[in-house]
Structure formats: C-alpha cells, structure tokens
Specification:
With about 50 residues, this protein is mostly beta strands. The protein has one domain (about 10-45). Helix content is about 10%, strand content about 35%. The chain has one helix and two strands, in the order αββ. It has one helix at about 10, and strands at about 25-35, 35-45. A hairpin with a 2-residue loop joins β1 (about 25-35) and β2. About 0% of the residues are buried.
Amino acid sequence: MYSRSENTFVEDLEFTKTEEENRPLPGITKFLKKEGEIYLHHRTYFGSGDNF
C-alpha cells in the first residue's frame, strides 16, 4: 500500500487533475527494474467505460 500524504509521487507521475485541485486520478503505473535501476515503463488512466 502507498500513501501520498508527505510526498509528491502522485503529482510527479501526473496522476492529479490540476495543481489547483490536487485531486488524484484513478490509474495504474508499471515500473521496470533493469540492472539495479527502476524505470517508468507505462502508465494509463481509468475512465468511464474502461474494462479494467
């Protein structure tokens, strides 16, 4: 489980509507670990009508 209370992780991944609203958007992010480094592989947002 992840808490966003004392960091900017969600904002850094652009999972917020706007800076003014600062509300999280539903979505998923996939990271890839390769040779000891962690990379952002893919991200997508959930929306109405999605089959997630």
